[in-house]
Structures are given as C-alpha cells and as structure tokens.
C-alpha cells in the first residue's frame, strides 16, 4: 500500500437510529498511515456513533467508510484482524483473572503478543492473578487497552481510553500511545480531555450535533480562536480613558463591574499597547490575565454557538408555528 494513501477514509457519513433520529449528519475526514486523529465533541455529539461505523460495528445510513482500503462492515474479515478496538465498555467476564482474560482473548487473535508483553505494556504485570471484578476502573481501562493491542494492530481505535485513570495512569497511557504511533500505528482517538487531544493528535475534529464544526492540526484550530486579555480598571478610570481599542487590534470587549475583558487576534500588539499606556499613566492593571486562544476556547465557542443556533431555530420554529396557527385561525374565522 502507498504510505500516503489514507488508512481511514470517511465520506459524507450518516447514521440514523430507530425513530428517525440522525446522530451523524454528513461527516467526512481522512486519516493517513501513522497519523493520530482525535474526534472531540460535547456529550451526544455523535463521536461513538461515528466511530462504531468506522469500526464496522454498524451499517451507515449513508456515505462511505474505507479502512485499509476495505468496507469495514461488508468486508469485516479483511479488516478485523488488522485493527484493535478499545471500546468504552470492555464487557469481559468479571470472574476471570486478568491473565485468563488475556489468554482467552489471545486464543481468538492471530499472531497475538505473549501475555507477559501485553500486560507489561499497560503496567498490569503485578495484577495478572487478580479477578477482573476486583480491578479499579482505571485498571479495567488498562486491561481493555492491553486486549486492543494484543494483535499488534495497524489501526487502533481508542474510545475515551483514559476515562477513570488517575493523572499518572493517564500520562503512562499517553506515553504508550505516543510509542505506538512512533512505531507506525494509525490511531483514531475519541476523548473528552482537550489536553489529551492537544498533546497527542496530529489532527483533530470537533463534532457537534452530528457534524464536524472545525478540524485541523491542534495549532490550526487554536490559532483560529481569539486571544483574551482581562484586568481590573484602575480606580477613577473608565474604558474611554484607554487608547482607542481598535487602534490596539482589539476586536471586542465587555465589562462586568470593574473588570474589562478584551478579545484580539493580535495579542502582542494589544498587550504592548495596554501595558505601555498603563506605564505612562503610572497605574497598575490589577488581575491582569493575558492568554492565547486555546483548544478549550474553540470547544466552548462551538458548543455555545451551536446551542445559540439551536435556541434560535427553536424560537423561529415556535414563532412559525404561532404564525401558522394564527393564520389558520384567521382562515377559520374567514
Ligand atoms: N442506540 C441508540 N438509539 C437512539 N439514539 C441513540 C443511540 N445511541 C446514541 N444515540 C443518540 O445519538 C446521539 C449521539 O450519541 P453518541 O453516543 O454517538 O455521542 P457521543 O459524542 O459519543 O457522546 P458521549 O461523549 O456522551 O459519549 C445522542 O443524541 C444519543 O442520545
């Protein structure tokens, strides 16, 4: 296979649940060999619904998925041995020990790693004899990961892999994922942790209400967000006493109490202008906070923006219904 050829290709993907609810509404993206692509999104955005289609666990209502050049649903036998799945719920028999679980799984996996290697990869060697039901939530996630890695997959699907892990466990999992990626494994990750996506992903997409709202490298997505400056107005000063905000490259502002919050796409210019003004005026900008655009900002803006759109659409719908019912009343009266 050409190394530039995408390992995962998703085109105009759609998923409709019983009752007609469209959870995935035309999602398209590609993941190249050796790349780590992260899907982020609010609760219910459609991450799991999308990933399950790519894993071949369900048939799309529309669009196309290709994994390693095959349809993962209709050509499951060609795809399954080459991919590793770490689902949100492993669902393994709780009475088996960690070691028995790995051996059972290895029995169904061709070319499986030795048990000791799989357990040591995820730091579970010392828990080999413990029953699954006695593992902590974080240890269960590690076992899920060990099983996903058992067949040395070319493509690894990680659905919220660090949920339930403490800070150290999370760092260890990230280190392992980085190593796997360095060895050429292609990874599709869904996560709620923005720093996880920021630290691991080559590219990412933020899903909202079944659609991709923004995608790109973490740096591209972050750079598309405005930077922020906030401080307390010095006593006796008003916003009009500052230099004209647009002359400092400030594109928006709001004031609550004495705290002024500014938005800018030219952080250095805006910050320098304000600090120079404060220096000359001999005043202190208390509580000064200067921060570049962040992935968190992008995420929150998308969630807020789309909820505003939803609210507007709902209002427009209600207004339309009210108008229609007034209209039909009039027709009735006439
Ligand atoms: N089996 C199902 N039947 C009907 N609706 C479903 C089903 N599974 C999911 N949904 C709905 O589809 C939407 C997307 O759900 P999905 O689980 O894909 O979101 P998600 O982004 O993975 O969310 P989370 O971050 O909470 O895991 C939600 O509105 C959810 O209620």
UniProtKB/TrEMBL annotation:
SUPFAM superfamilies: P-loop containing nucleoside triphosphate hydrolases (SSF52540). It is found in: Cell membrane. Gene3D superfamilies: P-loop containing nucleotide triphosphate hydrolases (3.40.50.300). The keyword Transport applies. One of its GO terms (molecular function) is ATP binding. It is a peripheral membrane protein. Its main location: membrane. GO terms for cellular component: plasma membrane. Residues 8-234 form the ABC transporter domain. Pfam families: ABC_tran. The keyword ATP-binding applies. This is ABC transporter ATP-binding protein.
């Amino acid at each position: 296979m050409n190394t530039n050829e995408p390992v995962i290709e998703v085109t105009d993907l759609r998923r409709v649940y019983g009752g007609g609810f469209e959870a995935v509404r035309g999602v398209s993206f590609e993941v190249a060999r050796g790349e780590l692509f992260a899907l982020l999104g609010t609760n219910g955005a459609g991450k799991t619904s999308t990933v399950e289609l790519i894993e071949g666990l369900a048939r799309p209502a529309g669009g196309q998925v290709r994994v390693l050049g095959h349809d993962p649903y209709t050509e499951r036998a060609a795809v399954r041995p080459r991919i590793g799945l770490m689902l949100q719920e492993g669902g393994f028999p709780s009475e088996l020990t960690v070691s028995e679980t790995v051996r059972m799984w290895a029995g169904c996996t061709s070319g499986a790693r030795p048990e000791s290697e799989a357990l040591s990869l995820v730091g579970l060697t010392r828990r080999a004899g413990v029953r699954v039901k006695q593992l902590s939530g974080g240890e269960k996630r590690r076992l899920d990961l060990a099983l996903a890695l058992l067949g040395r997959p070319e493509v690894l699907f990680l659905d919220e892999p660090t949920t339930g892990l403490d800070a150290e466990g999370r760092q260890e999992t990230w280190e392992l994922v980085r190593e796997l990626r360095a060895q050429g494994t292609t990874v599709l990750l869904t996560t709620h942790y923005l720093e996880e996506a920021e630290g691991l992903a080559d590219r990412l997409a933020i899903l909202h209400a079944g659609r991709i709202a923004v995608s790109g490298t973490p740096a591209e997505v972050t750079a598309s967000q405005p930077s922020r400056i906030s401080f307390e107005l010095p006593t006796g000063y008003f916003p009009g006493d500052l230099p004209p905000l647009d002359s400092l490259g400030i594109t928006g502002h709001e004031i609550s109490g004495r705290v002024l919050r500014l938005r800018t796409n030219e952080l250095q210019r805006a910050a320098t202008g304000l600090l120079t003004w404060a220096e000359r005026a001999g005043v202190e900008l208390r509580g000064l906070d200067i921060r570049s655009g962040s992935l968190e900002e992008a995420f929150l803006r998308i969630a807020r923006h789309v909820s505003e759109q939803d609210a507007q659409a709902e209002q427009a719908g209600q207004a339309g219904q009210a108008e229609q019912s007034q209209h039909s009343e009039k027709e009735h009266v006439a």
